[in-house]
Amino acid sequence: MNSEMLKPAAKPANPCFSSGPCPKRPGWTVEALSGALVGRSHRSKEGKARLKAAIDETRRLLGVPADYRIGIVPASDTGAVEMALWSLLGARPVDVLAWESFGQEWVSDITESLRLPDTRVMTSAYGELPDLTAVDFSHDVVFVWNGTTSGARLPNADWIPADRTGLSICDATSAVFAMDLPWDKLDVVTYSWQKVLGGEGAHGMIILSPRAAERLTTWEPVHPLPKIFRLAKDRKIDEALFEGATINTPSMICVEDYLDALRWADGLGGLSALVARSQANLAVLAEWVDRTPWVEFLAADPAQRSSTSICLKITAPWFLELDAKARTQAVEKLSSLLAAEGVAYDINAYRSAPPGLRIWGGATVEAADLKALLPWLEWAYAQVAPV
Asked: Distance (Å, rounded) from C-alpha 387 to C-alpha 383?
């Protein structure tokens, strides 16, 4: 190791680069929550108004079509995906795609918990995508848009036909507010507040197309549905859910925080500005990777690289000669050095992903902070690598 390498002089102003919960918006302080409707019922006139505002502003900023339903649901993105799987699947065969850990969770739920017999599982290695041309859209299709733990994203929706007869069900939690989503190709979209806008956790969003809504009114699952998953009852959609009448009690502090994040996004210029900020962050890291011999993107294809959950692998020969445990320990040491210096927190690869780094590049991250991080990455690597 090169312990004589001098520490860089400057540090990132914000050392938070976690991929979930993600960094708060620039300039955020707890004072942003001072107007939260604490101590009041979410069913009060004022409480309903805040929840409805969260839905309405989401629709406006994301450009969600007027005939799509938007609901606030419990249990983060996980809860939103589970609602979709348990409420909608079973009417048709299912194709489920997985190229990272969360996609694998949906595979497990569909095959082991729901035990749907007519299911095809299509997987690929971390950093790669499955063969999208093999998907059958006479089936319902379940997939993530952005691989939060692999750094591989869908480049487009050209593989989803307009005349599909099955539903396209998309877990888009690390893509919404950072990537353009083609609403006409997506029947269910889910995400959580604590991802791209850096909101507080525990709340999810579910967006349903008219085709998904029709499924709820024409078909009922044969398996029982817990209350927390019910989007409809007796083939009647719970329309109140999509006006802000949540299934269970939401945190009005978290609601206030989400509204604050939406106002910040609007002030920047809306979705296009958020996408541009995330792309600029990816560009900072891409330029560094191009000139750094010991690191590469986990996603080799530039068109498939995430601009939010940016996953990197160490390619130095000494590192590749280590066994899996030793690789993990080396990366943990590198990231611990950075955390101890107050330079970068939580940038280890996800526990089930290949050992490496995962650096959040969503819109709440400043490009200047990423630029300040890069010399520190080189310093920490020098402390870990053999001379």
From this structure: 9
> How would you list the strands of the sheet with 168-171, edge to edge?
69-74, 203-208, 188-192, 168-171, 140-144, 94-98, 119-123
User: Sign of the C-alpha dihedral, residues 380, 383, 386, 387?
Assistant: positive
Tens digits of residue pLDDT in 39-54: 999 999 999 999 999 9
In a 3-state reduction of DSSP, which class is residue 304?
helix
Please list, in sequence order, all residues whose beta carbon lies within 8 angstroms of the beta carbon of residue 328, skipping any fewer than 6 positions away. Answer: 355
Three-state DSSP class for 338? helix
Whether residue 358 contacts residue 311, with contact meaning beta carbons closer than 8 Å, is answered with yes
Q: CB neighbours (10 Å) of residue 111?
A: 15
Polymer length in residues for the chain: 387
Report the pLDDT averaged over residues 334-344. 98
Which class is 35-266 in CATH?
Answer: alpha beta
CA 361 to chain centre: 12
In single-letter form, the type of residue at position 188 comes to V
Question: In the chain, what is the straight-line distance between the N-terminal and C-terminal CA atoms, in Å?
Answer: 5
CB atoms within 10 A of CB 223: 12
Q: What is the pLDDT of residues 171-220, one digit of tens each?
A: 999 999 999 999 999 999 999 999 999 999 999 999 999 999 999 999 99
As to burial, measured by CB atoms within 10 angstroms (0-12 exposed, 13-18 middle, 19+ buried), residue 364 is buried
Beta bridge partners of 296: 313
Domain ranges of the chain: 35-266, 270-384
In one-letter notation, the amino acid at residue 370 is L
For 270-384, the fitting CATH number among 3.40.50.720, 3.30.70.260, 3.40.50.2300, 3.90.1150.10 is: 3.90.1150.10
Q: Residue 162: helix, strand or coil by DSSP? A: coil
Concatenated DSSP letters of 310-330: EEEEE--HHHHTS-HHHHHHH
Task: Summarize pLDDT for 276-299 with one digit per residue, the tens.
Answer: 999 999 999 999 999 999 999 999
Token representation of residue 68:
């799509």
Residue 347 to residue 16: CA distance in whole angstroms: 9
Amino acid found at 168: S
